[in-house]
Amino acid sequence: MTSATIHSDATRLAADAWRRQTSLRRLYTGLGVGLLFVAMCATMWFADEANAGHFLDRLPHILDFLSWLIPKDWNDVWRALFDVASPHDTGTQEFNFPLGRVPVWGGFYIPEYFELMLTTVNVALVSTFVGFVFAVPFSFIAARNLTPSPALRLVVKRFMELLRAFPEIVIAGLFAAIVSIGPVAAIIAIGLHSIGALGKLFYEINENIDMRAEEGLRAVGANWFERIRFAALPQVLPNFMSYTLLRIEINVRISTIMGAVGGGGIGEELKLSISRGFGAKTLALVLLLFTTIFIVDQFSAWLRRKLVGEQAFLMSA
Amino acid sequence: MAITADDILSIEARYPHVFRRPLYQRFGPLFLVAGTVLYLAYALWFFSMPQVLRESHWERLPLFLAQWISYDLQPEFRLDQPEITPKYPRFSALGENPNPDWVIRNPDGTFTVLIDGPAKSVTFDKTKAVIVANGQTVPVSLTGGKPVISGPVPDWITAHDDEIVARMGFVGEVRVTVDRVKVRKRFLGWANFVFDTRSPFFGKPAGEVASLLVSGPELKPGTSNIALAADNIWNNAQWQHGDVWTKLLQTIVMAFLGTLLGGIVAFPLAFFAARNITPSGLLSQVLERFFDFMRSVDMLIWALFFTRAFGPGPLAGSAAIFFTEIGTLGKTYSEALENIDDKPREGVQSTGANGLLVQRYGVLPEVLPVFISQTLYQWESNTRGATIIGAVGAGGIGLKLWEAMRTNSNWANVFYMVLLTLAVVFVFDNISNFLRRRLSRTLHDYNRLQAERG
Q: What ipTM did this prediction achieve?
């Protein structure tokens, strides 16, 4: 037997094994994709069946539905945005732009929609602040390497998990019955949720810190607060801030949705305007909301890049 | 060893970034804190917090929370009728023929209602009522045209002009006027969770129900007992199990379908948006702005639009998540593509493979685990988000939750739905975490092999 045949035999064996393995993998991939496809078709059918209007019935009318959105006079969009009187005003709600002016001083006023947008953004900022203030101490207690007591750690961790998973809308509904419907109930709901969401991200950061500084402080007899303050906090603060900024982006969106279910702010007005088919008002609101979210996102991305560099945008599998 | 002035100066000179920090660094944190405090003061004023908190009803909170896990029965006894009989509100949890053992008709014609055993109870006839609680016995005379307590009034009783209200804590209360006695007795648990009062199985002990299911005579001719029981549970009027579970399934479907479709559309677009892969810089710019647009238009706006276009329901919700997800996934996919290692791609390119094959064998193996992981993460977070957008009419359990809360009386139903939602979120979190851990192990093995190969 020559070495050449041995070599070719080995190659053939290896090639066969490889082929078998690939065909098996292809089979699995194919099965997985097929299963996903079946699930997609089934869920599509289910969603269509359960909906008030069906997809294929409504599809030809999709442009009819959009036609109300196009205002007769495009200038009305600007007038709606800045509460300037419209020549089309006939006393109906569709064009009563100046009615919503919020007087400030003399002839100056804040246009209604800007005031509502401000409410929504303020709800997001205050609730993020609430979340941050509680999440920081909780996260140090919940971190495996820094916790003052393992029992307390478990309690705090479970508590934060509960806050995170609890539907915000229920907390908002509960507090709407207690502090009256409006932005304060929304702040409490989003704030409580933020505690859970930020707390989880924070304690994961805490568990990855370099413990040498903490050991040094422990060696000189520092107590728990001093070790947290001087060993842990300086390491984690930039990352904390980065996640908090990310949370602000999310909370602006949630607070808009909360507005639509009675939490005050721009969401409520948008929902009314769309359900009544006010083209100019809807466009003005969408424009304002879109611009605000875009600015908040970009500003936060810029600040995060400054704080922690490109790391803020990398993702791990 | 003491430090001399020269040492101090030389240390200062060696570490200028520690000792001579620019002003903004030294006072930055201070300004940040001051700014935050000022902003909070402004927010207090903006939301008129002090006034809102002053006018809020915190005493309702324990009441609502108690209603989450308990129910009450409210029998009323008219004293101005010829004969005293207990009357229960319509749709009471006791059904059409209530005969609870805690309402006792005594031989002497008086009634006794045990609210928490004999220690907390009320005994009455047309002329007088005796309220017992907290170790005290308080007789109320009903003959003088208004209820009168003889003797001192304990602090757990409020004596109004025409009504005596005795509060007994969690277990309930008694309200007495000259022409009626009203009792509210609270029970821990959920009433009629399995069978409602209209069901033929109502009020039967579990053993009897089981034997009926297995071998009993048909309660409704033509239907097997098992089918009847299933139908009764599914259509339970009070808990609406069928409706709740269907709506829950809608929420899950919305998140699944929206995320999946978003991923399918974002996948090819991301290759054209990634700056290192795109055939044209202009196309990449346009696509990046498109992704930003889809994200910034916000799920709420999409939900409201699609609710108007397709009518309320899960189709609108799925479409809203789909459109937002095109933006989010498109952005994350293209960022992942921009971070790839170029060497495998160059290798495949050098064999003369065409563009599609280069992507398939040079790029895809590297990014696919990241793509799937990101998609799973979005799926998980959309399962939570789908609950909220449901409340604006986009289908799912959100609207049902919101409606149950609006009436302020159905907190047990709310809690039932919350528990189901929590369970769903928990299960899907774990599925997604499990899959992502498996993926990250694949990634990890892949990286280790790469490293070993050098």
A: 0.83
